[in-house]
Amino acid sequence: FTSAVFHRSITLIVSSRLHELVRQQGPFWDLTLCVVMLRPVVTPPLLHYQETNNEKLHKIVCELLETEKGYVRRLHLLDQGFFSALLAEARAAGSFPEEVVRHIFSNISSIHQFHSGFLLPELQRRISDWNQNPRIGDVLQKVAPFLKMYGEYIKGFDRAMELINTWMEKSPRFEKVILDIQKQEVSGNLSLQHHMLEPVQRIPRYEMLLKDYLKKLPKDSPDWGDAHKALEIIFEAAQHSNAAIADMERLEKLWEVYALLGMGEEMVDPSNRLLREGPVLKISFRKNTPKEGHLFLFSNMLLYCVPRFSLTGARFLIKAQVDMEEMEMKDAEIPHSFLVCGTSCTLEFRARWTVGRILSLFVRQVVEQQELGKRAPQWIRDSLVSMCMRCGDKFNALIRRRHHCRACGQVVCWRCSDFKAALQYDSDRVNRVCRDCYAILVGQPDGPAVSERKRGILEKEAGEVSERSLVCSFLTMIDRQGKTRGWFVIPRDEPPVLYMYQAPQDVRAQVTIPLLGYRVKELSPSDKRTFQLSQSNLLLTFLAESEELRDRWVEVISRVVDSEYPGQQRD
User: Is Iron there in the keyword field (predicted)?
Assistant: First the structure.
């Protein structure tokens, strides 16, 4: 006990006892013999131990070693457990082809042999010799090139997953061998597919640990050069692993869409990519009446579908298919409409809210990029752009005039269009093109590179923000300074902010309005296209192009300011 209160109470008790002794013994009592000093016992504070930099490096290397030991155990399970058992069953009973087993496990035996017979022993030797030789970069640089063998495994990973699922349904013996091993303690109740994903995830793990190691490693360390070179090689290998993980997620999404469409086996292509999907209104050429529909844009085709009621199975019926190679996009006569033209059919659609309109823009961009230089572009109208679509500089009639890129049709300034390239559609004659098209058609421009800098809050392209928006359209804003017509956007994955652009293709916003704290309200029934935003003494009035569009803006803003996000359940 060291508190002052306790110290004072003990002192009072001792003092009263001394007075009692004096009273009993008389005035000749030697008080000096009875002086009692009680001092609190003070424990010195514990010093916080600071790890040395070398100890931090040693800890990272130890983590690398421990995770490597566990990884080798799981490689042994894949190679000597699943692979060997399935191969033996295929050879003995012929219940399933031996070639299928080899396709599934690819070069897992080589990977297992490399890690168990080379990398793990090297790490163990280096840890045991750490005090005399505290470095790991030389070991990793020596083994890093061998990690390229993962490329073959990762390349065949998606196909391996398909084969496992297929043969577990087709062959009871195949399924039994796998399930028996999965039940063993060494498998940890994890599936074969889970274990097979581990080699795909291992390379990014090396990259992460080596990056951490380099952060702690002094620049003048003799291990710096080797560790940095090893990281470059591992980073290249990690790109393949990350791509494989993303590709697996792509396949899962693709199969979900295939199931919704009820596509036959002849139409299923695992190499395909779903680029965009969304609702549209199809316009009949005879009756000029819109009909609810849905577009699915794949990397090789566009599908027009109609919803159908189904408790199980396909939820959409495919009505038309246009291959990407033969597709053309044109503007229709009806506002906000577009034509999709193929060799066998021409379809007219009207955009239904943001999804459909952005889908039409995206289809156009995909087609135009594939046809860049091969087909004359449709020039973007000057009225849709108030600034250079590349650098964002404002146009004016004197020193910064508008120029059209002859390859993509975008409106750019003279500085961004000061490049020349031969265009196939113009009999390979040299034409004026923008910097980006020059890079695609010829190679990287030989002029000075545009300096990279962090973009400000206003420097976000209207098309980029619109593509991931909750709502976007033309509105007329009315405030104390008058009326301003512009392209307004509320992004989906940002804090609630209203962006205002002068034109829908501008690369920089004119104004941003944080929506938190605002209140939205509709005006009188006579003003069916207007709504207001109010905050304290600030009042902004907006005029939409239709009553339906006004209702959409009011709904989205109301939910956003109340911290609800309608983007989670998009129309």
Answer: no
As a whole number of angstroms, the distance between CA 444 and CA 430 comes to 17
Same domain, 6 and 127: no
DSSP string, 382-412: GGG-SB-TTT-PBPBTTTB--EE-TTT--EE
The residue behind tokens 């396909």 is 314
- On whether the CB atoms of residues 421 and 405 are closer than 8 A, the answer is no
Residue corresponding to tokens 């940002």: 494
- Kindly tell me if the per-residue pLDDT of 569 is higher than 50: no
Main-chain dihedrals φ then ψ at residue 504, nearest 5 degrees: -70, -10
Neighbours of 396 (CB within 10 A): 9
Q: Which two tokens stand for residue 398?
A: 């004197």
Which residues contact residue 342 at a Cβ distance below 8 angstroms, ignoring those fewer than 6 apart?
A: 322, 323, 326, 327, 328
With H, G, I as helix, E, B as strand and everything else as coil, classify residue 173.
helix
Query: Residue-wise over 551-569: b if at least 16 C-beta within 10 A, else e?
Result: ebbbebbebbbeeeebbee
CA-CA distance, 467 to 276, in Å (whole number)?
Answer: 11
Question: Which residue segment(s) compose the domain that 527 sits in?
Answer: 462-569
Taking the C-alpha atoms of residue 122 and residue 528, their distance in angstroms, rounded to an integer, is: 76
Distance CA(420)–CA(430), nearest Å, equals 6
Long-range contacts of 478-482 (CB under 8 A, 24+ apart): 478/540, 478/541, 478/542, 478/543, 479/539, 479/540, 479/541
Same structural domain, 33 and 62: no
The secondary structure of 267-321 as a DSSP string is T--TT--EEEEEEEEEEPTTT--EEEEEEEEESSEEEEEEE---SSS-SEEEEEE
The label of the residue with tokens 């359940």 reads: 569
Instruction: Give the tokens for residue 194.
Output: 């889970």
Residue 214 and residue 345 in one domain: no
Per-residue pLDDT, 74: 94
Residue 259 backbone class (left: φ over 0; alpha: ψ -120 to 50; beta: rest): alpha
**Within-domain flag for 276:** no
pLDDT single digits (tens) 489-517: 998 767 788 888 888 777 778 888 888 77
DSSP 2-69: --HHHHHHHHHHHHHHHHHHHHHH-TT--GGGS-----PPPPPPPPPPPPPHHHHHHHHHHHHHHHHH
Structure letter (DSSP) for residue 458: T
Q: Which residues contact 101 (CB under 8 A, 6 or more apart)?
A: 83, 86, 87, 90
Please report the DSSP string for 515-552 in residue order. -TT-EEEE--TT-TTEEEEEETTEEEEEE-SSHHHHHH
Mean pLDDT of the chain: 76
Q: What is the pLDDT of residue 257?
A: 82
Q: Which helix (H) or strand (E) holds 349?
A: strand 346-351
261, 303 in Cβ contact below 8 A?
Answer: yes
Q: Is the pLDDT of residue 88 over 90?
A: yes
Same domain, yes or no: 220 and 100: yes
The Cα 129–Cα 150 span in angstroms is 29
Q: What is the mean pLDDT of residues 399-411?
A: 81
Q: Are both 244 and 121 inside the same structural domain?
A: yes
